Amino acid sequence: MLNSTARAKRVWWGALSLCLSLLNAPAFDAHAATFSTVFAFDLHVTSAGVVEGSGTNQGYLFGTTSDTSLTYGGSIYKVPVGGGAPQVIYQLRDIDGYSPQASLLLGTDGYLYGTTRYWPRIGATTGAGTGTIFRIAQDGTGFTTLKVLGGVTRFHETTGSSINDDGIFPDYALIQDATYLYGVTRFGGLYGSGTVFRVRKSDGAFTVLHHFAAITDTSNGTNSSGEGSNPSASLLLSSTGLKLYGVTSGGGANAKTTSSSIEGTGTIFSLNIDGSGFDPLHSFSALDDTATGVNVDGVQPLGALVEVSPGVLIGTASDGGTPTDTTLTGFGTVFRYAVATDQLTTLHNFDSTTGATPTGNLLLANNGLVYGVTQGGSDTSTLGVIYSINSAAIDPATANYMRV
User: Fold this and answer.
1) What is the CA radius of gyration of the chain?
2) What is the CB neighbour count within 10 angstroms for residue 58?
């Protein structure tokens, strides 16, 4: 069972996600802020953030634990926003799937939707299979597996990647419109590079909207099509409700070289909600980490995009960029991408003094600022920062990066 023993280090990243989810209209004042631990995990692991319930469950946060055993696959819990004892509303059984990795989604129908990394137990093995998509009521009743991702897993004869019909590992939070859930798988699909899918809420009808192309040049990890591989964050539904945007951390038209590997630099992509019109909007620039370690726009995005105005997206790249101090290596960027003009503008270059390796989803707050986190690097700590940036910025001079 979960308990309230204070072990703050185990929940540092979870607490950051919670802080971001609770930001509201007033600007965040670092000097006036009060940090409170709502709940500390003891002997349990969480890999995702939380969502607030609705109706009679407004005022409760819902989340998952991802630790598993041979008999259960993690749990779904709720805890009051003001702190207090948590309640496990559902313990995933071996027939339900194992290890939720993504935040839950509160559906427009009042249900909670989520995913597991692994499918139901087979014999004595928990780590088999490709994942599930599930639904559950906020009171813990009615757990339903909408889809077990599947198809016969086989190997791509050229790349050796695991391939199947649906995709493997739906590790990022689902998004929704009134009828469908939309998500991505990190690997698998017909070419081993991941998929975009949708699931109808009413009956679990599942459709793969796009199979990412195979890596055609295995010497540098790029696609001949430049469309990217391995989606690395949740999708974004456009303000029109007709288009999906996303990012990949691999593939694309350019390569990142390190001392130990060569891999693609990643992409920004779009497609229509029916799967048509796939467009690899932007391939991040080449980067040689064994030389300067800098480039124009960063490489390998690891967080979801946000739309700050119609067709204008803000996102982050986890590596690269061009610090003002040319003696420093790039540690990622915050960028603005205008779809209509196909123009990417770097708003901020991380250099380990203002943070390093931005990750996770951005938040567009009511005050117009975009908030995010980095995994590490600052002038006072190696443990990361929370930052904000002006979402209306058109160029770096007006972006007003601020560590909060």
Assistant:
1) 21
2) 10
The token duo for 162 is: 């695991």
* Tokens (6 digits) for 44: 């349990």
> Which amino acid appears at position 230 of this protein?
N
**What pLDDT sits at residue 159?**
67
How many Cβ atoms are within 10 Å of 395's Cβ, its own excluded? 10
Side chain identity at residue 118, one-letter code:
Y
Query: What are residue 139's phi and psi, to 5 degrees?
Result: -90, 5
Asked if residues 97 and 73 have their Cβ atoms less than 8 Å apart, the reply is yes
Q: Angle at the Cα of 293 (from 288 to 297), degrees rounded to 5? A: 90
The span from the CA of 92 to the CA of 115, in Å, is 11
pLDDT one-digit tens code per residue, 4-30: 333 333 333 444 443 444 344 344 444
DSSP H/E element including 17? helix 12-21
How many C-alpha atoms does 74 have within 13 Å on its Cβ side?
26
- Residue by residue, DSSP assigns 90-148 as EEEETTT-B---S--EE-TTS-EEEEESB-S-BTTBSS-S--EEEEE-TTS---EEEEE
Q: Residue 20 in 3-state DSSP?
A: helix
Residue 27 is given by DSSP the state P
Nearest in space to 104 (alpha carbons), one of 149, 54, 41, 68: 54
Task: Return the H-helix or E-strand segment holding 2.
Answer: none
pLDDT in tens, 172-193: 999 999 999 999 999 999 999 9
The residue written with tokens 């002038």 in the block is 379
User: Model confidence over 134-161: pLDDT tens digits?
Assistant: 999 999 999 999 999 986 677 776 666 7
In this prediction, the residues of the chain whose per-residue pLDDT falls under 70 are 1-44, 70, 122-129, 151-152, 157-160, 378-382, 404
Give the long-range contacts of residues 283-287, CB within 8 A, separation 24 or more: 283/226, 283/228, 283/252, 283/253, 283/254, 284/252, 284/254, 284/317, 284/320, 285/254, 285/320, 286/254, 286/255, 286/256, 287/254, 287/255, 287/256, 287/257, 287/319, 287/320
The pLDDT score that the predictor gives to residue 4 is: 38
pLDDT of residue 152: 65
Phi, psi at 248, each rounded to 5°: -120, 150
Quote the CA–CA distance of 231 and 247 in Å, as a whole number: 6
pLDDT the model gives residue 30: 44
Type and span of the H or E element at 396: none
